[in-house]
């Protein structure tokens, strides 16, 4: 299992690439939530999301071990992050994307000199192809979340939160495959276990919620949610045990609640964030956290939105 020592090592490994992202506040949002809210702004991170942290840690280790070719299977933030760091290290990368990927995401990957191959419409189709490409060219496949280097890299978000907010009581983070939340859990619970950590998941993509209820990894059928970055079918084999061990609570939010949170942050705070980033804020806004008058840090995981479709995401 990943440890806080791994997270600290990851921080040293990625320090020359990533930003230490700021904490944003809104008096109106805090008043609305009944807690003092702080937003850890990973939408202002390089490549527009937290994913660059884990990708940088993993790709750097792969290149150090001799990798001369990198692949990933992702149409979104992970693919962009892998393409960015591979390009930075002068290693060619191919990102396997779905056939229905949006133009803006493809353009972002190309902008980082990533090659693109389209394959099917599901991760079950993309991942085997990306692994096949890596094997054909003696390269390395970079998984989106279920990898110790990925988890440790994402955990650096937790280290920064503890340094930026010494008196934080609660940390809320979105939950998809579990890379971000498991990294944050490792960093914080092994450093300051008194801090409460709550995961937030869409009601329509509640694979981790169901897995925790059943006490084992449980998959769900393909689903739809505007928080498309959290649309995983099940938690990871490596991430789930960490979540089981450390997570204090996991709450669910509706599509309408996600939309309202997204709208508030855009209209009142002038910040463009992804729907996936809004689930934690939605949990705070709609009183899902079970705390009052506490210092609560919500992780904004990313800001890569296709602005041409923004109207469809708002209430």
Kindly report the CATH topology of the largest domain.
Rossmann fold
CATH level-1 class of the largest domain: Alpha Beta
What is the structural class? Answer: alpha/beta
Q: Which CATH-level-2 architecture of the largest domain? A: 3-Layer(aba) Sandwich
> What is the helical fraction, as a range of percent?
40-55%
Give the DSSP E fraction (strand runs of 2 or more residues). Answer: 5-15%
Question: Topology as H/E string?
Answer: HEHEHEHEHEHEHEHEHHEHHEH
Strand order, main sheet: write it out.
Answer: 1-2-10-7-8-9
Characterization of this structure:
- By secondary structure, this protein is an alpha/beta fold.
- The protein folds into two domains: 4-49 and 147-313, 3-Layer(aba) Sandwich (Rossmann fold), CATH 3.40.50; 51-141, 3-Layer(aba) Sandwich (Rossmann fold), CATH 3.40.50.1100.
- Helices cover 44% and strands 15% of the residues.
- The chain has 13 helices and ten strands.
- The strands form two sheets. A six-stranded mixed β-sheet has the order 1-2-10-7-8-9, sandwiched between helices. A four-stranded parallel β-sheet has the order 5-4-3-6, with helices on both faces.
- Helix 8 (179-189) links the parallel strand 7 (170-174) and strand 8.
- Helix 8 packs across helix 10.
- The model has no long low-confidence stretch (mean pLDDT 95).
């Amino acid at each position: 299992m990943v440890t806080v020592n791994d997270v600290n090592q990851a921080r040293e490994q990625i320090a020359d690439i990533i930003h230490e992202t700021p904490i944003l506040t809104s008096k109106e949002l805090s008043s609305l939530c009944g807690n003092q809210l702080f937003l850890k702004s990973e939408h202002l991170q390089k490549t527009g999301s937290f994913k660059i942290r884990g990708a940088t840690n993993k790709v750097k280790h792969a290149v150090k071990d001799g990798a001369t070719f990198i692949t990933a299977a992702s149409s979104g933030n992970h693919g962009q992050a892998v393409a960015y760091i591979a390009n930075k290290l002068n290693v060619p990368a191919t990102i396997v994307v779905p056939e229905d990927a949006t133009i803006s995401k493809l353009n972002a990957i190309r902008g980082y000199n990533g090659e693109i191959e389209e394959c099917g419409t599901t991760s079950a189709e993309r991942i085997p192809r990306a692994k096949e490409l890596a094997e054909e060219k003696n390269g390395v496949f970079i998984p989106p979340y279920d990898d110790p280097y990925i988890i440790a890299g994402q955990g650096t978000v937790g280290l920064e939160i503890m340094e930026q907010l010494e008196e934080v009581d609660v940390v809320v983070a979105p939950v998809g495959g579990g890379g971000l939340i498991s990294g944050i859990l490792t960093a914080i619970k092994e450093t300051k276990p008194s801090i409460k950590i709550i995961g937030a998941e869409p009601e329509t993509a509640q694979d981790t919620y169901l897995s925790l209820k059943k006490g084992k990894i449980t998959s769900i059928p393909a689903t739809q949610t505007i928080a498309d970055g959290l649309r995983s079918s099940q938690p990871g084999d490596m991430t789930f045990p960490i979540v089981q061990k450390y997570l204090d609570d996991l709450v669910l939010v509706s599509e309408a609640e996600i939309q309202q949170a997204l709208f508030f942050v855009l209209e009142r705070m002038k910040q463009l964030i992804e729907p996936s980033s809004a689930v934690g804020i939605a949990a705070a806004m709609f009183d899902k956290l079970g705390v009052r008058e506490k210092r609560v840090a919500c992780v904004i995981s990313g800001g890569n939105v296709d602005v041409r479709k923004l109207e469809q995401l708002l209430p």
